[in-house]
Amino acid sequence: MKQPEANRTEFLLRYTRRLAFVCLAGLLPALFYGVLTAWDREGQHERLQLGLLLLSPLILSLGLAWVMVSRKGVAIPSDDPDLQAIAQDEFRRLNAMRAVRVAFVTVLFAQLPLAWLLGLRPSPDSLAHMGTFTCFIGFITFLSAFLFFDRD
User: Fold this and answer.
1) How do the domains of the chain map onto residue ranges?
2) How confident is the model at residue 81 (pLDDT cuts 50, 70, 90)?
3) How far is it, in rounded angstroms, from Cα 141 to Cα 152?
4) I need a surface site. Which of 3, 22, 31, 142 has the fewest CB within 10 A?
């Protein structure tokens, strides 16, 4: 199925935004699961932890299925010139760099409270939890900021 040039570029832009949104939606339950795992030592919220653990792959699977169905049978090869043009677009690169800066500053500001909160927990893996939370906070902040800056 061949699409007109302007429609195809818009279609690919929507496609990449949907993929970013699905990734963001899949990361949030995983972050909440990590928070519950780090602070729930007595096992009071085991059912909620199990639900959050199962929710992330479910959201990712259903979200990717939604993205694939929304393609409507259009093949998108990795060497597609329109996809390459979107990847090389100066406005999108600027938005990505702005999102990286926002994520970096957010991670820097989150380090002190996170270290203080995890230092209160008598846990041998507090360092691993801090590293995981830092990565998740950075990923989520980057995707959120990129989707915010990249809107029309």
Assistant:
1) 1-76, 89-152
2) confident
3) 19
4) 3
